[in-house]
Fold each of these.
Amino acid sequence: MKYRFAEMIWYEVKEAAEQDRVAVLPVATYEDHGPHLPVDTDVVLCTEICERAVARIPSEAVLAPPVPHGYSPHHMDFHGTLTITWDTFIRYVKDVCCSLAHHGFKRILVVNGHGSNTPPLDLATRLTVIETEGRVLCGSVNHWGLRKVKEAGRELRESDYGGTSHGGEFETSLYLALRPDLVDMSKAVDERSPLSNSFQSDLLAGGHPEGSSANFTPYWSTKTASGVMGDATKASREKGEKFLEAGIEGLIELVRELRATEIMDRRDQH
Amino acid sequence: MKYRFAEMIWYEVKEAAEQDRVAVLPVATYEDHGPHLPVDTDVVLCTEICERAVARIPSEAVLAPPVPHGYSPHHMDFHGTLTITWDTFIRYVKDVCCSLAHHGFKRILVVNGHGSNTPPLDLATRLTVIETEGRVLCGSVNHWGLRKVKEAGRELRESDYGGTSHGGEFETSLYLALRPDLVDMSKAVDERSPLSNSFQSDLLAGGHPEGSSANFTPYWSTKTASGVMGDATKASREKGEKFLEAGIEGLIELVRELRATEIMDRRDQH
Amino acid sequence: MKYRFAEMIWYEVKEAAEQDRVAVLPVATYEDHGPHLPVDTDVVLCTEICERAVARIPSEAVLAPPVPHGYSPHHMDFHGTLTITWDTFIRYVKDVCCSLAHHGFKRILVVNGHGSNTPPLDLATRLTVIETEGRVLCGSVNHWGLRKVKEAGRELRESDYGGTSHGGEFETSLYLALRPDLVDMSKAVDERSPLSNSFQSDLLAGGHPEGSSANFTPYWSTKTASGVMGDATKASREKGEKFLEAGIEGLIELVRELRATEIMDRRDQH
Amino acid sequence: MKYRFAEMIWYEVKEAAEQDRVAVLPVATYEDHGPHLPVDTDVVLCTEICERAVARIPSEAVLAPPVPHGYSPHHMDFHGTLTITWDTFIRYVKDVCCSLAHHGFKRILVVNGHGSNTPPLDLATRLTVIETEGRVLCGSVNHWGLRKVKEAGRELRESDYGGTSHGGEFETSLYLALRPDLVDMSKAVDERSPLSNSFQSDLLAGGHPEGSSANFTPYWSTKTASGVMGDATKASREKGEKFLEAGIEGLIELVRELRATEIMDRRDQH
Amino acid sequence: MKYRFAEMIWYEVKEAAEQDRVAVLPVATYEDHGPHLPVDTDVVLCTEICERAVARIPSEAVLAPPVPHGYSPHHMDFHGTLTITWDTFIRYVKDVCCSLAHHGFKRILVVNGHGSNTPPLDLATRLTVIETEGRVLCGSVNHWGLRKVKEAGRELRESDYGGTSHGGEFETSLYLALRPDLVDMSKAVDERSPLSNSFQSDLLAGGHPEGSSANFTPYWSTKTASGVMGDATKASREKGEKFLEAGIEGLIELVRELRATEIMDRRDQH
Amino acid sequence: MKYRFAEMIWYEVKEAAEQDRVAVLPVATYEDHGPHLPVDTDVVLCTEICERAVARIPSEAVLAPPVPHGYSPHHMDFHGTLTITWDTFIRYVKDVCCSLAHHGFKRILVVNGHGSNTPPLDLATRLTVIETEGRVLCGSVNHWGLRKVKEAGRELRESDYGGTSHGGEFETSLYLALRPDLVDMSKAVDERSPLSNSFQSDLLAGGHPEGSSANFTPYWSTKTASGVMGDATKASREKGEKFLEAGIEGLIELVRELRATEIMDRRDQH
């Protein structure tokens, strides 16, 4: 059974939609990830987790063609960053989602691989809901926000708070599990944000427990010399394989949760 | 010493910027908040916390003129919701922030009173950073995300998970502390989201601990009949006063943290 | 009877719309008003006139939540000006008006307090008419363009042509009537446009009687050193109170005129 | 000496700019003008006045290529109306003005032939001022707002208030003076707005003296059955020739006034 | 029988649409055309061909009012170029086409006189098709792409490949046939692109037969010192008259082909 | 030597730009390609040609990360089409190109795999030239417009005019050469456009030799029942392999031609 939207003939897409399969859309970005990781880190991690998860449940989901380029203007001081203007990016993803909805997909899950894509993707999926007047369930999740990944994080991480952010222990481990030949661990570093608690973040742990949950995003190059924000030296392929499996299982779990969610009628008071 | 931007004569604005005072900008929205609360709930809570906090530290901060109308298309099934299109809203707030930056304010804190404003405001403040090429620190916080409010939440709340969301225990208590005459507690209800864990939220507790951190926002009227999402019946003026004080102190703390943050130079690799 | 939209519970908004009350929406801007007036001059004058007028006729009108930030790029050389990009401003106001229309308000009057807002507001209200396909009467008026204010101007003003423009006799008098403690009359000046007749204006008298009615708006700082355009020295609290009463009565008159206007069917020739 | 921009070779355009000639840009629209006038009424009147005025003072002005299509959504119920979306129209005219500024023209006068273009053109010319950072004087005038035309109106008009609006005495007379063969006076009518004073207008007399100066623009077809708003039956070729001469002389006067206006430096307080 | 849209009274436009006449819309631009041709070359050539063609078949076509300003940012180094931003230009033309469609024209042919307008006009006409959901046939043609012109080119041209591009043998000949008094043949030159085969073009011959069909458009001033791209010295009035006749006949042929084309129903698979 | 941008570490991207390698960016779309081909036909053909060509000349070129989603609104009647709004698509590709330029790439070649992308991509690459003020050579080519492919077409094609359009002999052959398992040749058909000469096209032969070169794009489903436009039955893997080799060699040729092109200075006349 085909699970890749891309490989389907047009009437097979129609059938997939009629089977109420969840459309899983990976979105990421290209940007510097320190001196040890390629610029496609976010793309590889996100698409591989989606690819493998959907492949295991082809009757329940479809892998929509990834949107690899995302929103990353604050990384432009480092070569390799390709950034799309905020509103163009939102409209682009919304158009992909609305195209899927046009063809009958009623449940669409955008899976994100890049932190700064979070607000644009929340908006893109909300716009899809509004444009379809509520007939479609469309939303997003960061792969590190999947329940099983958060759980795995609590078990597996060795670095302290701040260690599993951009290019740190978590992402480096995952890349090692997927394409070890492209990682140069000899250049892996441990670099942390110089900012105070309320302006801290950690992919797996979220905002700092001793800080306010503020959203501040200065230029990346003001915060890090290496481009890394976290402890890449703690990464290992073994942990990466466990994170990968957690991501796959966590995504399957969420797809099923979404598939079981009823699309309710609106109670318009007008 | 004047602390309201609005009341200053133009050269006083110049002086305030030269004193490196933090510009605090409240942003909210008008929308239904159940049968017991006025549609300005988000506006009143947010602006009052800002007003009172800045009034206590006039030499450190300036109260910028609030942007009261926000982003709330999914609430339009209920009368009283005034919603601004996503990109217009983002550009509007960005223009206010960039105007402040143009006049010399180097630290700008947007304080948000409406959950769905979070992604647009994150983008608006990021755009301000980009447009000023990193010379300005600009970001946002939800008033319920202030460290002291989260702390107060853990101490004060009586409802279980989900009880302190839209129009629930937290917001109703705060409104009772500010304008009790406008609250009709006889109509207060306890209504919860029918969705499963990964699609739950709670202002004070965040995403459900047993779910993935997914962002799904269907039309509000599909999730609630009363418009409330939480337990308004648990609200009290006493709790509201404590939440209010926590908000004021929490905001002062964050303003000071921001004021102490160094604006670092970019390390542009080009 | 509640007359403030903001303070209504959502079903009260519904009732107000069903009563065919006119929605009165104040719109202004923050900008320099000379060395003697605060930057909120346009906001205070406009919102106070609306507030007081609507409070007198609650069964006929509703005070919609003001849009305080407006369009003022040519004032940016002076600190304190907050300007919204032209199309963002138009869309923002249009969204507020269309939200009101969505909830059933059929007559919407935007009351403007800032000269340069006039063309954007004319467009915003026209767009509301077009988006609602003509089912709504929506338009704008400057508070100094109200019949009774123009009449009062002819009676009360002491300065000659050009004296009642930006920060001059008219606006300063009104501010003195509303918040005298914030006015520093010791700094009030009389400064006039250096331009010739066709490029002159006067809030109360309109274009120069000996000139063409041209619209030219160079940067404000090229025309005035103080920021004032008019004769602030002629202002007095007494005149301000009379202008204020004229504004209130003039607005009530216009609201009633609008309320009595039939919404006619279109004769579409297609 | 060439006065038409269109007929110049590129280096002649350079020379014209270096001579500080005023660029005169006619802008109009195509729309119904009643059963007796062609849809190009606004275009013909406006461009002919400009053409003839500039031809008389070639060393002082240049006729820029007209923008014939304008903003007229509220006329779309009548065939023949071609309307450009508001922001597209504004940007289009701004681009023409900024192109002229790019080539060295420092004084640009947009001459308008269509009432509803007034706010968009005011914005387009303001944007040109802002984009050129104040180095260019750019503004607009309606041909019926020229001093000599207003004067002629007071002398020549025979209809009472409201008679010289859309397709009425004034416009029909002018068209009769220019292309009498295209006018069908046997179909000329006298039709007036059914609205009350504050919503009245008259091209030559402005707002109603007994009303507030409100801007309300409902769909045209709700106000008139014939499309005419005014008294076309009072039109004559003789009056038209006098109005035409007044327009030509009035425009020459304004061009000279503009050419004599100094472009002053900004006093930026930053 | 009237053939100019502009000169029709509104109900005559309605009749013209009901007669299923093809709306022919000329679009061009103003830009430098070398030291021997006026900046309106593209406008004159395109509108004259349309004017004359439609005049010969008034019962089959209508001449829509031309859009003279187009897209030419890469020519801005030369005075006289007036350029409209890409998306504004596309929307403007689309609005004209959609206005025509709104009034009942079902076949719309945009005739282009400026090479760089080709992609924007293709998009503008496609958008018209999409906005009308396929009920209208709308497309574009460059006047040098008309079958009879290409044929005439093969017969008449004397210059070798590259000689009939911007301001070269073809355009100069046509201008000589239309307004010889405005051409300064003493300044006519032969200048060619310095680029290699794949980046060559020739209005009449298309891409270079020995190159790839690539689209590269560097700034014009990098490719030519005179502004000309082609051999203007080979131009003559005699050839121009033949090209003109070919254009007129070619356009009539295409209008008839379009008029004979059935508007087919969509086979929507949803 | 790495040739995939995606796999480079950020400083390797810097080095690749410093080596003046040509950035090759594949762009395509997902859409129905008849009952025998998957919806990723345009993506696979275009990216595979680019991948293989760049892999052969890693010291001269870099494979930029493909933009797979394109512009195809007229195909939306068939399932599987994912379309991006025209201006969003243009801005997205422009942002990728400008990001590449920001990092130092001076020669950027967009390789297109979808006919309707041609005008948007021409605009996107022109915008890149304008935004970089002419410092970058950026343009596009359709893979079937490569010199060697056109040549191969003349040699290899068996179908007559119109046979090598959408999903026809050419594309099907190429797909058979790349992923034969995904092609269902039992469903291959020969279907042609019902339109007359001037509205015909053929990927390899271009416009019809007996027609005008008009651009008309009605909804796809009005022209074809199968979705195919051409003769898929003439396809073979053998021809596909030859077309593929021609594409690879043709692209290498064009990359080298581009790399040898001097970036010339502008002769700005201002």
Amino acid sequence: MLKVVAQFFIKNGEVEKALTLAKTLVLETRKENGCVSYELCQSLGKDTHIVFIEEWESQAALDAHFQAPHFVDLVPKLQAMTEREAVITAFNKVM
Amino acid sequence: MLKVVAQFFIKNGEVEKALTLAKTLVLETRKENGCVSYELCQSLGKDTHIVFIEEWESQAALDAHFQAPHFVDLVPKLQAMTEREAVITAFNKVM
């Protein structure tokens, strides 16, 4: 099982707009084959720091996600609201 | 609901020992009140990069975790195996 932690650092003043977009991304992504869970979280210490915590059945499912219409449409829009590059790390779930 | 992403950067040569200790920490922590989930993951790109992805019912449950005997015993031992400071971020689960 694959876990992905995808951290985005949103510009001040863009947080509400980014969250609205991110919520749509969550709802669409949860419908994908092989998506075990896909959560949206916001840092307690810094509301501009948001993270998607994802679980995928396989690398193939994750690869398909990157081609999904909602991903291709929404992720560049989200990136345009960030103040620096996203930090995205893929993990193997040990337990 | 609170999510915590706790990233540890283990020294080369200490990974197996760190994982063994981390697995014990997972098993004990999952017994705690207010622990919704507590997962151990290892970066696909760098096996020295491990992360606990945690979910807690409340801040009070998380605060109690920091006082739990297994936490007080095992976390300093894990930290002694790291090459740099852990990166621990607490998040509010938006959805």
